[in-house]
Amino acid sequence: MRLDIATVCLSGTLDDKLAAAGRAGFHGVEIFENDLVVSPWSPGEIRQRCADLGLSIDLYQPFRDFEAVPPDVFAANLRRAERKFDVMAQLGADTMLVCSSVSPDAVDDDDLAAEQLHELAARAADRGIRIAYEALAWGRFVNTYEHSWRIVRRAGHPVLGLCLDSFHVLSKGSEIGGIKVIPGGKIFFLQLADAPRLRMDVLQWSRHHRLFPGHGDFDLSAFLGAVAATGYAGPLSLEVFNDVFRQSDPARTAVDAMRSLLVLQEETARRGTAEMRVADLPVVPAPDGYAFVELTAPDPAGVLASMGFVYTGQHDSRPAQLWHQGDARIVVRPGTDVRIDALGVATADPLGAAQRAERLLAPRLSDMDYDDPGVRAPDGVGVVFYRPENDWMAEFTPADPALVNTCGITGIDHISLTAPFDDFDQIALFYRAALGLEAEPETEFAAPFGLIRSRSSADRDRRIRIALNVAALRRGDWAPAVAEPQHIAFTSDDVVASAKAMRELGAPLLDIPGNYYDDLLARFDFSAERLKVLREHSVLYDRDEHGEFLHFYTRMLGSRVFFEVVQRIDGYAGYGVANSPVRMAAHRQFRLTHG
Ligand SMILES: O=C(O)c1ccc(O)c(O)c1
Ligand SMILES: [Mg+2]
């Protein structure tokens, strides 16, 4: 299917927007009138520019406040329309979007609306133009797709059809089953936007908070499935009004937008909509877990050894060391600060997985860095794919077996990354789509330096879990929060024993304040002995409907990375998010007292 984007989605002037859309691989655009009016290019030049970029102009919009008005206003509106048809002729655009009226001049009269739209369509037909009528969710009298369809049907003109916009339909909670009775040929245009569920005025919601598909809470694949079932064969066009995107690098936004459409098509097809031709995204087996996590660090040996890791080998061609404990493997390469460089993901089909991620517009990693196929995620973290049988370990020359002081770590539970506010949604969608993960419910918590949104995703078997937090914005000079913390959470079958063993080896564990334990006692009916053990070892606690969660943290290593050790009891499914503010405050306290 043709994949389009409205120029309103992207920041900049028309040349920035078109270049970004073209480069991201879109087939066509909706030209927003404002973008055209402020452009130094004539409509003919815009047409040429689009052609050079391989873009068609599939819609001109918006034409407002046209229908159901008194005769004098109607005459003026027709004159206005004729001037826009002139522009469209020069643009080579054949479809004009007419929004349902919000005008105080309009009257509540469907017959009059149909009659006037018929007249508009007759004039459009003379110019080879089609009219797509869209019910704005805040339209004065027409604000549901069902109502706009009744009027279009009553008008009965072949070049008058509907524009369906997922935001207007889903924001009102309309029944999407009704879409299936509309003949596909009468749907002239389809606009797609997601949004978070918010309780607010619908116009404000639409103008400020629309999102690309997969970033919000709407069931867009059900919506697209319903539209596809009508036989609609026109473009899938993104129309997202969003305060952040209006200011962001349009090239990056356009890539994010394209990725969201590819994922939406795939999901719609997977949910059984035969009409939806699948984007050629390779389908790959579920990941088998973390092969390893790669860190840059100046002096890894100290901390990893104090946590019971064993130095296992030196890479044959790169300055990288392999450390392991249980099934947790850490590759460390020397560098000035500590950061997570790459996730090694075990999969039965490494090449397919890398091709899928590449098709999702992630750049391929160079062979210089890794012998195996990998990509760079939008947050800069490498994702490298390996067969599960560990053949990648052959690249390391085994080290002399060191003194083994295991501290009970059995594997990697999850990776936690922090994304800048503006990129959070696209980074979350990328990891989910590239690795075949399912989104877990989004949470938010009040942390010392900001309200933090947190969203995790995991594969069905919970072998790969990625938790993503929004970075605190760090407004002004008051910026005490760690910029973009990252951490690796290891599993242990006995967290208290692990904490004890690590303390004995001198691991830099994080002390948790006494108030936290007093509060635990109030919230949970602990025995005095149990509480004493948790307090003594700075082990935190959480509980969900499945079971219990025990975990502890290290101090910050370098400027942004720390480790966690977790124990999930009876299928606890969360991440101890309730304890995150405690951890953040404790990291802050350590910085204050130890510099
Ligand atoms: O917010 C608006 O006015 C507006 C304009 C054009 C559209 O297609 C739309 O969905 C909303
Ligand atoms: Mg719209």
UniProtKB/TrEMBL annotation:
Mg(2+) binds at residues 414, 487, 564. Its cofactor is a divalent metal cation. Pfam families: AP_endonuc_2, Glyoxalase. GO terms for biological process: 3,4-dihydroxybenzoate biosynthetic process. A divalent metal cation binds at residues 134, 165, 191, 239. Transmembrane segments: none annotated. Keywords: Dioxygenase, Lyase, Metal-binding, Oxidoreductase, Pyruvate. InterPro entries: DSD (IPR043700), Glyas_Bleomycin-R_OHBP_Dase (IPR029068), Glyas_Fos-R_dOase_dom (IPR004360), IolE/XylAMocC-like (IPR050312), VOC_core (IPR037523), Xyl_isomerase-like_sf (IPR036237), Xyl_isomerase-like_TIM-brl (IPR013022). Catalyzes the conversion of 3-dehydroshikimate to protocatechuate (3,4-dihydroxybenzoate), a common intermediate of quinate and shikimate degradation pathways. Belongs to the bacterial two-domain DSD family. This is 3-dehydroshikimate dehydratase. It comes from Kibdelosporangium aridum.
